[in-house]
Amino acid sequence: MEYKRRELLDIAFKHIFRTAGLLTLLILAGIFFMLIYNSIAFFLQSKPLDFITSSQWNPGSSKVSYGIGPLLVSTLLVSLGAMIMAIPLGIFTAAFLSEFAGRKLQNILKPFIEMLASIPSVAIGFLGIVVIGPGIAKIFGIQNGLNAMNGSVLLAIMALPTIVTIAEDAIQAVPKTYREGSFALGANKWETLFKVTLPAALPGLIAAIMLGLGRAIGETMTVLMATGNAAAFPTGFLDSVRTITATIAIEMGEVPYQTTHYFALFAIAAVLFLITLGINLLGEYFANQFRKFQP
Fold first, then answer.
1. What is the 3-state secondary structure (H, E, C) of 227-249?
2. Between 232 and 60, where is the model more confident?
């Protein structure tokens, strides 16, 4: 009787987990289908070449333009700036936690870093408006600190927990025999770290970077609050920019239903979806590579 009950429970949970997995895939497929369906509706009303090559996103003027160029460049610029700051800081922090910090210090620092992920993005946006933006304006002698650099700093803060957590796992997954072999050949701790441990953990470190980049590109509220929202081609990090996510958040609530402008927002959302999907798939690929090291 007991055996029968356990068998029934196993079968029930098997079906529950399978249904949950299939439901997740269906939701993802539904989002993708909705984006593609509305994007096709947009391209039936507007030329795809204009969407790619036009240098302006200006749906409200008499000469309407739906060029994704400035939004895409702004998104990539802010994300690039975030990664320039977050990658070295995140990987070196992970290396310090894994290789040098004592147990007590680890127990203090790691929860603190992971807690950054739980801070609402709107609170980090306030930090950009009140502290970092004015600081950038003062340092560079400009009137407005709401620009790409401000957004990059905030996105770097938001990407750090992802990068640090995955990078630390990757470094810890490197077999101890690698380090012992290096020490046996006369290398010190720093030489072992840079010439043995980090190269061996490279697939995991790349996975950490890719997932951190995906986190930065998909962020909405922080960049909406902190980057100035100028839908023009930026010439540098001190220019105000508007990312794809910010454009969707600003305009979707006000645009008339099923107009060209409405469908255009789905088209830029589809581009963003494909970019983040590609980045996350790359991240998962490299994460699977580094899992091979794990016992």
1. CECCCCCCCCCCCCECCHHHHHH
2. 232
